[in-house]
Amino acid sequence: MIAELGLAALWLAAALAALQLVSGALGLTERGAVLGGAVRPVAVVQGGLALLAFACLIYVFSVTDLSVKLVALNSHSMKPLVFKIAGAWGNHEGSMLLWVTVMGLGGAFVALVEKRLPERTMLATLAGQAFVSLGFYAFLLLASNPFERLSPVPMEGNGLNPLLQDLGLAFHPPTLYLGYVGLSIAFSFAIGALVTREVGPAFAKAMRPWVLGAWIFLTVGITAGSYWAYYELGWGGWWFWDPVENASLMPWLAATALLHSCGVLAARNALRAWTIMLGVVAFSMSMIGTFLVRSGILTSVHAFAVDPQRGTFILALLAIYIGGALVLFGLRAATVTEGERFAFVSREGALVVNNVMLSAILGIVLFGTLYPLFAEAMGAKVSVGPPYFNPMSALFAVPMLVVLMVGPLLRWRRDKFGRVGRGLVIPAMLVVAGGIGVLVLGGVALLPWIGLALSVGLGWASLLPLKGRNLRRTPLPIWGMVVAHFGIAVALFGMSSESAFSVEKLVAVRMGEVTQVGPWGVKLGTVEPVAGPNWTAMEARLLVRYGIDGKVTRMLPQSRSFWTPPQQTSESALLTRWNGQLYAVLGGEAPKVDGEKQSRWQLRLWWKPFAPLIWIGGLLIALGGLLALLGRVAADVRRIVAKDKIAYRREKQGR
Amino acid sequence: MSDLPAKAPRWAIWLPLALFLGFVALVIVGLYRPADRNVASALVGKSMPQFDLPAALPGRPGLDSKVLANGKPHLVNVFASWCIPCRVEAPQLGALAKAGVPIEGISVRDTTENLQGFLQTNGDPFQRIGADDDGKVQLALGSSGVPETYVVDGKGTIVYQHIGEIRPEHLGLLLEKLKEAGQ
């Protein structure tokens, strides 16, 4: 019954989305104004019903109800409970349901708490949100019903992709989705503003917290995803420029640009049309990314639903929403005037550079991701990888990072470099010193060299906005900016150090044999079989020692075999020290050479100096966003409370 | 110093839409390209790896790669009783068997009991069934999931790989590939 309840809730939610669209649209007209009042409550109930449907799906997965086709295809009674639950969204249908749930909840949340936006823009925004939701409801209900029953009921389920059986990955998609779909709110805001032509500081201030929220989730999601790929795939890398990764990076780049242009619009009433454009682009990138991954049109190591028919459906949705929004933009952008002017050397100017560079990187990533498709249409098969992406994105990232050192110090509207110059002497010296230092070490490629030098100066420069301030009275958004920019320096240092100084070793060793990798001595103890709930594995006991007289520590990498469905995975072992990470992967048994009695095992070892800083930096960036969000929300609450107080006093006096 | 921003030209406003339409056109070409998008096994065009699997069922022959080089085209179906798409494709395999196609089975990580149950419910189109209990042959074939089906010509060379279940609409293509393999 629960599956039917979920399906009913889903249909009802879809119907309410239609109602929300119609009453929102009619509410904008004079004759239908009375309908406008229905929009907010309908949005709230719609969100609640979507959540109910999602809860039903989680329930049927948690009890492994095999009469539901989706459960039978993606779950197994022997799986640990947490992975049964994660199975609910670890597949195409479930993740689409998660998508509409987040969209519905986002709309409900906006309807409940958003007080800044003019009422008409609010109606148009919620109608826009409902319009987008409606397409995805249609997609779910007509093309990929998650609650479809199966007859006859199978004895056992098909399991879950073992690669996905990992805590990191179980919670990575929902986080990323909150970011992806959270951007739908910015999209709807942009639509709302285009419809009512109300673009200005008030609009930017209203939109900013929502963009920030989505951006924080995206940042955390990407960071977590990168760490997952690093330890789970056993390849020792943390970014592969895989289409699926690019699909998450592109909305992040657009959202980062949007966040900064929102700041310009809020503070200075400039970059109006551009901000609206980015609002449209950011969510479009979420949708395009999802489409590329889901349609099977690009091959990827972790694309999971290859189905051209569904691809066609999503493509139609894309054409309607993105195409429609861009047409609306084309028609209305000219009436949204550009707003206040400013000199090139100014805070706005620096933020424009940031926006242009981020957009350029976005273009490069998009082009590289689509290029194989383009080449295939021309009859050639190519793959585009790090040799294209790394230098091309660095070409724009490096100037952007240089501007990042100066930008936060500049004043709005008009400034002189001379004024901020003195403060930048130390960071500039740090860059040069860092550059020379790395050069002395030698053997470092160009990009990591630039990265190392820049990261040191950027780390210092990012703290400069705090100079001369009373730290306890510094507003939270300033703290947020400082922490996020410092996080970029930290992540950059980690990335550059990882690619400059990593040591890799692939060996076949006998038990008791010692291998040296970087400063580590690694001794293979034993290799023994172990059994888990739905897998068996060979587990190696490695005894490792840092330097000559370090403490001996144990590491236990495994080579796992799952049988539902049959698949082999490597469970790498990681040992984290303050100055880096030792990474060990157990391969197979090496073939015996003639006359050999004892078997040898393949081991892959990496010493990655300061690699954890990559993800620590990512989390700092997200933390910066969180601080800024808390600061903005707190200010909003204070403002509303003060307004209520004034209104109350006036009312009293009036009596 | 000049004030920014200069007003964007009118056509620039429509540029994003033009780019997006280009994207849509490209993707439509990609979606409807007739070429199969499956990751083709590196083994197509090469000979079947050597293996000798024990019988999966008592009283029935096991599968040996030499059988596949007996001069006649074969269909080799990798399947398992625990695999749902395998049930979906069973009627199609039955039809092929009825049409006289020799079908050999490789049963992956299965038990005799479950396998017998599966064949009783879904029909038994197989001439021989080899038991690949640890999935080694499956891996050697470059196959990552079940079901998968290979068309092998009379010399033991793999001429075609079909990933996923065989649906009614695939029958024509498979028969054609078998016919080509027989020439």
Automatic annotation (TrEMBL), chain A:
| Topology of the protein relative to the lipid bilayer | Multi-pass membrane protein
Q: Where in the cell is it found?
A: Cell inner membrane
Is Membrane among the key words of this record? yes
Pfam (any one): CcmF_C
The GO terms describing molecular function are: heme binding; heme transmembrane transporter activity
Q: Does the keyword Lipoprotein apply?
A: no
Main localization (coarse): membrane
Cytochrome c-type biogenesis protein CcmF C-terminal domain location? 315-632
Key words of the record: Cell inner membrane, Cell membrane, Cytochrome c-type biogenesis, Membrane, Transmembrane, Transmembrane helix
Where the record annotates domain Cytochrome c assembly protein, the positions are 89-295
Cross-referenced InterPro entries: CcmF_C, Cyt_c_assembly, Cyt_c_biogenesis, Cyt_c_biogenesis_CcmF
Entry GO CC: plasma membrane
Q: Name the residues that span the membrane.
A: 43-63, 96-113, 122-143, 177-197, 209-229, 249-267, 274-293, 313-331, 352-374, 394-412, 424-441, 447-466, 478-496, 613-635
Kindly list the biological process annotations in GO that this record carries.
Answer: cytochrome complex assembly
- Tell me the protein family, please: Belongs to the CcmF/CycK/Ccl1/NrfE/CcsA family.
Entry function: Required for the biogenesis of c-type cytochromes. Possible subunit of a heme lyase.
Record-given protein name = C-type cytochrome biogenesis protein CcmF
Species of origin reads: Novosphingobium resinovorum
Automatic annotation (TrEMBL), chain B:
Major subcellular location class:
other
Q: Which CDD domains match?
A: TlpA_like_DsbE (cd03010)
Signal peptide feature range: none
State the superkingdom. Answer: Bacteria
Q: Which UniProt keywords apply?
A: Cytochrome c-type biogenesis, Disulfide bond, Membrane, Redox-active center, Transmembrane, Transmembrane helix
> What name is this protein filed under?
Alkyl hydroperoxide reductase
| One MF term in the entry's GO annotations | disulfide oxidoreductase activity
Could you read off the lineage of the organism from its UniProt record?
A: Bacteria, Pseudomonadati, Pseudomonadota, Alphaproteobacteria, Sphingomonadales
